[in-house]
Specification:
The protein contains 2 helices and 15 strands. The protein is mainly beta. The chain folds into 2 domains: 131 residues, Lipocalin (Beta Barrel), CATH 2.40.128; 71 residues, Hepatocyte Growth Factor.
C-alpha cells in the first residue's frame, strides 16, 4: 500500500483520519462499490490540492455532485453540479468510473473506496476531488430543481410539458441532463434566449445513452414521437 501525506483544511481530526485512510486505500482497493450509483445519488465533494508537496483537502462545496444511472446495472449515466456543469459517466472497472463534462472540456476518473467515499483523479496520479455520500434517491435527497423565475415584463415563463412530442430544429444549446424533463423545462424558462425545448429520453440514441436537453431560440413545429418531451415558453 502507498501512503500519502494529507493535511485536511477546516475538518476535525476524525475527518482528517478518514480522508488519509481513504486516499491510501484508493490505490489498492478491491471493493465493488459501483452499485452505489444505481438510481440517483448525491455526493458532497471537496477539492484536493498539493501546494507544498503534501495533499490538502478543503471544505465541501455547497453544491453536491448528482449522479444518475441510465440503466439498471449502473454501467453509465449522467453527473452534474446543478447550475454549474453537466457531464456523463461510464463504468470502466468494478469500482471505477470515467467522467467527462458535456458542458465543458474537463474529464477525470473516480474510484469508490466503499459505498460512502470516493477519490477523483486525473492522469492516474493527480488527485482531484474527495467525495462523501450525502443522500440517495429522488430529487429531494439533496438538490431542489431550479425554480422558474418571473419574466421581466411581469408575465410568466412557465412551460407546460408536451408529452411524446419532438420539436426538431432551431437549437442553440444541448447537454446531458437528469431523467426529470421538468429540469430541462426550468432551464429553458430561466434562459432569456430560450423559447422552446426538447428533452430526449434516455436510451433513444443507444442502450446506455443519457437523457438530453435541447434549448431552442425559436418555436419549431411539433412532431409526434415517443422519443421526447417538449415545451414552449408562454
Amino acid at each position: 500500500m502507498i501512503y500519502i501525506v494529507v493535511q485536511v483544511v477546516s475538518m476535525g481530526w476524525e475527518q482528517k483520519l478518514i480522508a488519509l485512510l481513504m486516499i491510501a486505500a484508493a490505490l489498492t482497493t478491491t471493493v465493488v462499490a459501483i452499485d452505489q450509483l444505481k438510481g440517483i445519488t448525491y455526493w458532497d465533494v471537496a477539492e484536493i490540492t498539493n501546494p507544498s508537496g503534501h495533499h490538502e483537502i478543503g471544505d465541501y462545496h455547497q453544491v453536491p455532485w448528482r449522479f444518475e444511472s441510465s440503466d439498471a446495472n449502473a454501467n453509465a449515466g449522467t453527473v452534474e453540479a446543478t447550475n454549474l456543469w453537466v457531464g456523463t459517466w461510464k463504468a470502466v472497472g468494478p469500482c471505477t468510473i470515467y467522467c467527462k463534462m458535456t458542458s465543458g472540456y474537463d474529464e477525470w476518473y473516480i474510484t469508490f473506496i466503499n459505498p460512502k467515499y470516493f477519490i477523483a483523479y486525473k492522469n492516474d496520479v493527480y488527485l482531484y476531488r474527495f467525495g462523501h455520500l450525502r443522500g440517495v434517491g429522488g430529487t429531494s435527497a439533496a438538490v431542489t430543481p431550479t425554480p422558474v423565475v418571473p419574466s421581466d415584463n411581469g408575465g410568466s415563463n412557465a412551460i407546460s410539458l408536451e408529452q411524446n412530442t419532438d420539436r426538431p430544429g432551431m437549437n442553440y444549446k444541448n447537454y446531458a441532463t437528469s431523467q426529470d424533463p421538468q429540469i430541462c423545462a426550468n432551464d429553458c424558462a430561466n434562459d432569456p434566449n430560450c423559447r422552446a425545448f426538447t428533452y430526449v429520453n434516455p436510451g433513444v440514441r443507444g442502450p446506455n445513452s443519457p437523457p438530453e436537453c435541447w434549448l431552442k431560440n425559436g418555436v419549431p413545429n411539433a412532431v409526434s414521437g415517443d422519443c421526447c418531451v417538449s415545451g414552449v415558453k408562454i
